[in-house]
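Lesson 9: reading folded outputs for more than one chain in a single document. The general rule is that every protein is listed as its sequence immediately followed by its structure tokens, and records are never interleaved. Here is the first one.
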Amino acid sequence: MTATAFTPRVNEILTWYAGQNPGVLTNLARLLTTGRLAGTGKLVILPVDQGFEHGPGRSFAPNPPAYDPRYHFQLAIDAGCNAYAAPLGFLEAGAAEFAGQIPLILKLNNHDVLQDEADPLGAVTATVQDAVRLGCVGIGYTIYPGTADRRLQYQELAGIAAEAKAAGLVVVVWSYPRGGGLSKEGETALDVTAYAAQIAAQLGAHVIKVKLPTAFLEQAAAKKVYEAQSIPSATQADRVRHVIQSSFDGRRIVIFSGGALNTDSNALLDEARAIRDGGGFGSIVGRNAFQRPKEQALELLGNMMAIYKGELE
């Protein structure tokens, strides 16, 4: 990290985590002072867990160079991302070659789609010690609020988070509501997404990853309150703002998923504008980066970062 990137905004964000040990604060500072967005308080992270989560063909066939784990390290570096996140195998395949060039986040649990599951449950596939060994700044863990075994995930995450924090690692939580009790539309409903962000914050996440919410309201009890209190939801920026408010009134870093491949780059840039205008902290962009040819990916990521820096309207 550089002195010029250690801005008042970075210092302000670090005060939100004052109860953490110096190792956590140092690694959080590394995230915030790396890449093109260094010092801004914004993040763009490249996550590549889709090979495990969706299968190699669905993930990498649209851009065959992406079958090579090293491709993603270099893409994150060339784009000026704040970090690169992946499961154990992909990180082990390039961590030594790219040591020190990009902050790494080890995804500690993963889930496959070889069976059709109404209530998904990931498996722990790596350890905190693996993250330390690979020189990572943090660990990642996915929870599925709403799934039948969510309590097991919450308990598992609580233990992993405590171990990671003791080792000085940042805890990044993917919070994706799913399960038989939720409608498909409800998985990205505003009330459910805000709830998922709150759960991740309560479980000790330093960085929270959620999907962009829609204006739909899933839970009848929540809908009554949202309507009675006139919680704004008409625009994407309104909805982002409410999710940020639900994450300790903006005192936790919340970044938003880039979702499945969208060939309309302008639509993705509009989403980045809504995240910026709603007070979001940035994006975690996987398939919309590595499934594009590299030059197109670099252009897209560069434009997103320019929006977050206020260089592009």
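And here is the second record, again sequence then tokens.
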Amino acid sequence: MQRLLSARRPRALAALALAPLLALSLGAGAPAIEAGSTALAVSTASCADPVTSAPTGPATVSTARTAFGSVLVIGSGDYAGCSLYLLTSDQAHAMTGVPFACSNGPNAIGLPCDTVLWPALLTLGAPIAGRGVNPTLLGTVTRTDLPGLPAVQQVTYAGSPLYRFFLDEAPGETDGADLFDPVTSPTGIWYLVNRWGLPAPGRAHLGLETAPVDGTGSDATVLAVSMDHGFVLLPDGLFPAYTLGRDRHRGRPMGACQDECAAFWPPILTSGQPDAGPGVDQDALGTIVRPDGTHQVTYRGRPLYLFSGDAYIPTLPYNGGAASINGAGLMTPWGVFNTVPRLP
């Protein structure tokens, strides 16, 4: 694994080696260093650079074409062209005022989420709208939780705080796209952002996954969705898909899991018609439009969801670092969620 990471992301590997846990798992022995240390600095600007100081001017946000469509990028300066992401579980902060999901709280990697793993896009003054960006959707939110920094302003778009990703090194890279991230608290999904401020997930791909039920039970083969498309530790990883028992009204799909429910059971999103892999009926796949304008995948008319309790990253102690089916049959305040078995 060390050879794979070294070939893919040399500077990112150096940053990861600072975390005791990953240093052990990757065979490195570097000690942990505070996020604000100059030892993290690199000689030339990279999209992977951590945030180590307050901003000195306004940030510019533009759009660029990618395999996920036209998405937001940094528009000028040293990081021009670097991809920008939103985190779905940051909605909990907007709804309730709880801490940001990507913050400086403890995590299994041992490095701050908001300055090292997903460096926040900061600005001094109002952010500037570049090509393709709606200036009315740009805003800021005050962050007082970035380690080593005073109170600073983070750029928002359509209300969502914007971040870079530490495995994106060059402009145009999108290694953080659709990353189902257990390191954040609460768990969330990182998406690229389209010009309307909505997630840009690309075309969803549905397949079959075989994994133990509740992590330790017998294996089950269930409908699953491919996530983490560019993530070197789990490229195109499969995660179980769930339906909600009450997700119909008079025979029509509702997408009833919204707001707080969606924080625990994120909808499976797509850009365009979802794609079926082996063992999945393409004709059974469809979409509905959710109230926020995103397109949710359906299977035989039933909207599909992920379960936050299934997120994992190999080598990290979330769900044992391996795939498992933890949400099957769970009774929740919003109803019962169930997996979708493979066709006979």
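What the second record shows: The first strand starts at residue 60 and ends at 66.
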